[in-house]
Amino acid sequence: MKNSKEMVMKGIFFLSACFSIVALLLIVIFIFANGVPFMLDYGFFNFIFGMEWTPTNAPASYGIFPMIIGSIYVTIGAAVVGVPIGVLTAIFMAEFCPSFLYKILKPAVNLMAAIPSIVYGFFALQVFTPLIRQYFGGNGYSVLTASILLGIMILPTVISLSESALRAVPRTYYTGSVALGATHERSIFRVLLPAAKSGIISSIILGIGRAIGETMAVVLIAGNQAIIPDSLLSGVRTLTTNIVIEMAYATGEHREALIATAVVLFGFILLINSIFLYFKNKEAK
């Protein structure tokens, strides 16, 4: 009886794992089967490095280079805002935070992760956009606004995973460092932080992945201009916002171009993850 229960549970676990893999394969097959043929017909370099996105013109142009640059700018901006704040907050919560304050901060961070992205976007539209328009110039719909918002949105991911990585480091690392004469701060930054580096890097990867894939919040505050931004105050359109804005009415070649944009976005995320993992594994050796 016991063995039969174990076999049933093993089967359930196996099916769950297979479901995840099959779902991923179906997504990959769909976007590549519909997007790659268009890229080959239109011209890979014309599509990737084209400067104009005018699907309603005759003939239509489907160049996504401005949106690739826009996605890179916004992602880098989000990392600059969110990663340092997230990692430092995780260090504070793991090693410096009083217990009474931790009971408030931890639920607050978890609550941030549960807030829908459209709520973040509306908040930025009503708060960040007027402030940036007033104090920095422009119309407020810009790379800067999107970067600040996405930096805030990736905070729960970076904070939670970084804190878990720090708490997973054996406490003997810290006590040994203190016993050798190091201060509390030096033990944390020179011993615990390097030991937790693998988990912290993973949190950064996942945070950047969210920043790249975020759509609804960015639609509201980025300006949605398919141009290469020449400053932080310029409007921008990312790859994800391009898809969500036009997919509702796109047909034929236009729809295929949007699916091809998803292929590029997928490759973009894989490239970033591969670069991070390469350096992570290189340092581990």
From TrEMBL:
CDD domains in the cross-refs: TM_PBP2
Gene3D superfamilies xref list: MetI-like
Family designation: Belongs to the binding-protein-dependent transport system permease family. CysTW subfamily.
PANTHER family linked: PHOSPHATE TRANSPORT SYSTEM PERMEASE PROTEIN PST, PHOSPHATE TRANSPORT SYSTEM PERMEASE PROTEIN PSTC
GO cellular component terms, A-Z: plasma membrane
Protein name: Phosphate transport system permease protein
Membrane topology classification: Multi-pass membrane protein
Cited function: Part of the binding-protein-dependent transport system for phosphate; probably responsible for the translocation of the substrate across the membrane.
Xref: Pfam families: BPD_transp_1 (PF00528)
Record's subcellular location: Cell membrane
Sequence intervals crossing the membrane: 12-33, 63-96, 108-128, 140-161, 257-279
GO molecular function terms listed in the Swiss-Prot or TrEMBL record: phosphate transmembrane transporter activity
Annotated GO biological process: phosphate ion transport
Primary site of residence: membrane
UniProt KW keywords: Cell membrane, Membrane, Phosphate transport, Transmembrane, Transmembrane helix, Transport
Domain ABC transmembrane type-1: 68-276
